[in-house]
Design brief:
Layout: H1 6-15, H2 24-38, E1 44-51, E2 63-67, E3 78-81, H3 85-92, E4 97-99, H4 101-108, E5 116-119, H5 124-127, H6 131-134, H7 152-161, E6 163-167, E7 173-180, H8 185-201, E8 212-219, E9 224-226, H9 229-241
Parallel strand pairs: 3-4, 3-5
Antiparallel strand pairs: 1-7, 1-8, 2-6, 8-9
Length: 242
């Protein structure tokens, strides 16, 4: 059995006596305490949930978005592919890049200096040939995530404000960032509750049995703290309603 590092020993000490499963609020407080004691960088706080869904069934596949009220703690570079006045609308809303053939040509040559790509419906035909390079990077615009839209101004503002996409993988797992560990507990809780509420609302009508099988909050290099799934929905409802 390998010997624990000093960092791992410190983490164990800080978690000693901490009761799990925990509430989301207590988990976030503990994660901040642990990270601030052992980490030398501003870690990302993440939410992980295993859902009771059958992803092989089309009507139980989950893919959606939500805007985290406190953002993600990073600058999001937004690129828009549109025509005419929609280009001006995108730039006015804060898009970092906007255009049509010029943008497509740059991407074809290997340019990916953006985090989110938004397109108007009339430009999607031109993007088809880029699917093989945009798809693997998770950058292909999609109506389900609101990145194929005529409301480019709103889409740009949402992306800049902290819009995140969540989707269930083949194992029914959702992994999503909710902010940085240097955020206040209040801001992290706002983001966690907003994401959890969106996941709860996304429950497929055909899903049977327990919906949230397990849930954890963690940091990039830190421990995962198990959440109490029996009280999760009530905690989120109370917080959102507060």
């Amino acid at each position: 059995m390998s010997k624990l590092t000093k960092k791992q020993q410190k983490v164990q000490e800080l978690l000693e006596g901490f009761e799990q499963p925990s509430t989301g609020l207590d988990a976030l407080k503990k994660l901040k305490e642990v990270s601030e004691a052992v980490s030398k960088f501003n870690e990302t706080v993440e939410c992980h949930m295993r859902l009771g869904i059958e992803v092989k069934h089309a009507d139980q596949q989950i893919r959606s978005t939500t805007v985290l009220p406190a953002g993600l703690g990073k600058t999001v570079r937004v690129c828009v592919i549109a025509k005419g006045n929609k280009v001006d609308e995108a730039l006015a809303a804060g898009a970092d890049f906007a255009g049509t053939e010029d943008i497509i040509e740059k991407i074809e040559k290997g340019w990916f200096e953006f985090d989110t790509l938004i397109a108007t419906p009339d430009c999607m035909g031109m993007l088809g040939k880029l699917g093989r390079v945009l798809g693997p990077k998770g950058l292909m615009p999609n109506p389900k995530t609101g990145t194929v839209t005529l409301e480019v101004g709103k889409a740009v503002k949402d992306a800049k404000a902290g819009k995140v996409e969540f989707r269930a993988d083949k194992q029914g797992m959702i992994h999503c960032p909710i902010g940085k560990v240097q955020f206040s507990v209040e801001d992290l809780m706002k983001n966690y509750a907003t994401l959890a509420e969106a996941i709860l609302k996304a429950k497929p009508a055909s899903a049977k049995g327990t919906y949230i099988k397990s849930a954890y909050l963690s940091t990039t290099m830190g421990p995962g703290i198990k959440l109490d799934t029996k009280t999760l929905a009530a905690e989120v409802k109370d917080y959102i309603g507060a």
